[in-house]
Write a structure and sequence with these properties.
This protein has 241 residues and is mainly alpha-helical. Helix content is 65%, strand content 2%. Strands 1-2 form a two-stranded antiparallel ribbon. 31% of the residues are buried.
Length: 241
């Protein structure tokens, strides 16, 4: 059922979004408190991201396709993914390289606040162990559920509340775009480490892709690729798994 013909929600769009985001966020925090570094918090996050939106969606007789979980624009999604990967990948590598060079020169407390890695790093390309499993995990367990929840559900419902915006490179970006990126960044503070707020910046690209193609398939691909690339760089510069 299209969103234009759906029945009004029992709550306003903003109240609905903030309520479900808070429930999901608190659920992840609680799972970390109870189960620590096990796989349970990731499972809670994945299930919450995929199924919490179903509650209001059923009120409006909607399904996942109404919120961008579809391959109807797969050619455009693939083009966007490849284009951004070719542009952002080299730029991010250079930024990461200079950041690694800067970290040892920062006061230790500031470095600890801004980065998960301390000390000197030297680049030697290597893939993380069990890399194929990482690919599947990042695409289907992390990126796809997060993109459906944030760029699919949250960004769409917030756009219902604030439909305006300016066109930027073929996508209309308004308050919904910015607030979704903020909530995405705050959602990563379930483990309170300030450097996790940096995900605000790739969230802007994910949100732009969602508005540009109308689906979350491309942003999910790019999201997973970003996570994998960062992990490869961490292992290549600092070693470890």
């Amino acid at each position: 059922m299209s969103l234009s013909t759906a029945q009004p929600s029992r709550l306003s769009a903003v109240q609905e979004v903030l309520t479900l985001w808070a429930v999901g966020f608190l659920g992840i925090i609680l799972s970390f408190a109870l189960f620590g570094g096990s796989s349970i918090p990731k499972l809670v996050a994945t299930v919450g991201f995929l199924y919490l939106p179903l509650i209001p969606m059923r009120w409006r007789d909607e399904d996942y396709r109404d919120y961008g979980l579809t391959l109807r624009a797969w050619r455009q999604d693939l083009r966007l993914f490849l284009t951004l990967s070719l542009i952002v990948g080299p730029l991010f590598f250079l930024g990461f390289y200079f950041w690694v060079e800067l970290i040892p020169h920062l006061p230790q407390e500031l470095a600890r606040l801004l980065s998960p890695h301390l000390g000197t790093g030297h680049f030697s390309f290597r893939l993380p162990p069990r890399f194929a499993e990482w690919v599947i995990d990042q695409l289907f367990v992390v990126a796809l559920p997060e993109e459906f929840f944030y760029r699919g559900y949250l960004q769409t419902r917030l756009r219902d509340a604030w439909p305006g915006g300016r066109r930027v490179l073929g996508a209309r970006l308004g308050p919904a775009f910015w607030l979704t990126a903020v909530l995405f960044a705050l959602g990563h503070l379930a483990i309170f480490q300030a450097w996790r707020l940096s995900v605000f910046f790739p969230a802007l690209l994910f949100g732009w892709m969602r508005e540009r193609s109308g689906t979350v398939a491309g942003s999910a691909l790019f999201h997973a690729a970003c996570n994998l690339f960062v992990h490869i760089l961490e292992v290549s510069f600092f070693g470890g798994a």
